Amino acid sequence: MAITEENPGYKWVGTRPIRPDGLEKVTGKAQFGADLMLPGMLFGKVVRSPHAHARILSIDTTAAEAMVGVKAVITGSDFPDLAANGAHASDIDVANNAIAREKVLYEGHVVAAVAATTRDQAEAAAKAVEVTYEILPHVLTVDEAMAEGAPLLHEGMITKGVDPAPEEPSNVASKILHERGDLDQGFGEADVVVEREFTTKPVHQGYIEPHAAVADANTDGRAHIWCSSQGHFQMRAYSATVLGVSPGTLKVTAAEIGGGFGGKTVIYLEPLAVRLSQRAGRPVKLVMDRDEVFRATGPTSGTRIRVKMGVSKDGKITAAEVWMAYEAGAYAGSPVGAAGMTAIACYDIPNFVVEGYDVVCNKPRVAAYRAPGAPMAAFAVESVLDDLARDIGMDPIDIRLANAAVEGTQASYGPKFPRIGFVETLEAIKDHPNYTADLGPNQGRGVAAGFWFNAGMMSSATVHINENGTATVVTGSPDIGGSRQSMALMAAEELGIPYESIKAVVADTETVGFNDVTGGSRVTLATGAAVVDACRLIVEDLRARAAKTWDVEVDQVEWVDGQAQHVDGSQPPLSLSDLAAKSGRTGGPISANASLNSRGVGAGFSTQLCDVEVDPETGVTRVVRYLTAQDAGRAISPDYVEGQMQGGVVQGIGWALNEEYIHDQDGVMENPSFLDYRIPVASDLPMIDCAIVEVPNPAHPYGVRGVGEVGIVPPMAAVGNAINDAIDVRMTDLPMSPVRILEALTEQSD
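RE: above sequence
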């Protein structure tokens, strides 16, 4: 661990206690999305399109409705027509993605759903639903979708962000642009210029638990939803939109979640389960199987990216030009905007243009995946920067240090950086023994850096002091990365009581104030700040109660190590348990609420070092050594921070070497299982070494920066740069599979 600023000597923050969810998870007591069973519950099954693009001519549910055990059948006609009601385009897209109306836009698009007494009955009824389609031409990549005369997914889509607006519709939903300086001048000042084009394929987040939802609708129009979700307040809002009801009529409880990584920030099953429950008058459970997850939920974007960069002989980047096209899937909303913000944000570049396009195609609507959009951009930019370093004979760390963003640097997307730790991550890599370790035959070493801006947004928290002096911390942020532990550690620090005396829980949408989605690496920062605010309100209350007990002014009372102390020591200290026991005589229950819209988000930076060995006979790449350095701001829970860092690296290695969605010519996915979609397993990997850099975020009471996103940004470039170092071949297409490496080696030898 590299600590760049003085440790303030916290008692609990920065320690490694036992994780609070461990016992329930290893004993099987934890309740995940599909575990809930309610009395009289029915089982649902979704009917999905087998076509990538088709017009729905008719849906006949007669046979399904007549089958034994079937209690409800629904189609798109059972939901409000949001377009006719003048809803916002984004809401219409959410609704149409949940269940198709006039057209299906990808294989797996929902067209109907059934509920029956047993799973077998539901599956049989789903097969009995007869759908008549008119098959339409489809487009599967940004190249096909942007080609002149390409079939249109949405006949009225006019590209946003272009002035003047185009007169004709296209599959390009929007354009983003960031620019500064003079490109021609910048490239004119360069001694070396490198230009390359890169492609990446859609990849899956790899969460282990499939999507699941249980709904129990009441006769009064209200409904309770249980779901596997990263944000149950967001699921409430989206579901209410699709159902055409007020969010206040829905209560949503977040189950334990078996992985998300951004893929569970959108709705799929929730409004369907509610409508089925309303029709049947009984609770309904819908659970995807793995095939459905792959075919019908959002992966991240496939991309095409062109990068041109110039440097002077001393390694200063003089100009950069980045062109990006990102697949959105069936509906607008690819992460190209975030890609545009992050592509060159690590560096202080005087002249640049970053141009990006959001492109729809006949695949499932994309979903977030850890730092959405940034890893693909980093793969391209960091690969070109590596080539530039080689061309001028400069160390790959030194060229990044020569251009590194620091405090006061104006980011490529606009604002000036406050205190950041990018330079420190570079230095941590350079100072580590891995950087100078010996390499064997066919081995190579690669370096890459990455940036994520992190998120803040809205959070609420409530803290209760129990009668025995323990505390309960209540938030509405689903725990997917250890947030219950980080909340408890910060509360323990504030209240001055042991971590073991604090219980952190995630409450439903009716029990705690609003919390934005668990995503963007925001929870420990934003929800944590709300917890800290609530704890400080409680401490002020405790001081006032102690003052009342002693009949002194409150400014004569201090709170130290979990007890009230008189400033002159004239009174015996009162512990939290003492005050809790007397709460009925000093003002009643001890509780506080805090809500905030977070500001001062701390940007995240990561630098990573990868050593690989490439077998020239088979093209197989083996990662032999890996080091990641990341600025955590303050590592509230170092175990979880390291887990986030290692997890991002592992997912990035899979993305680099193996993972991709494969579709046939009809737009049908060919590898919808973990047997054929190959994620890394333990035997594929070395130990991932971690260097936690701590440059505290001055805008957070404990210096927190988000850590969940940026770890996945550099790996593909780091692996690619290592492969280039090993075999002297620049790989520009992901994944860098054995077949592609052999092809590249063959081309090199010809």
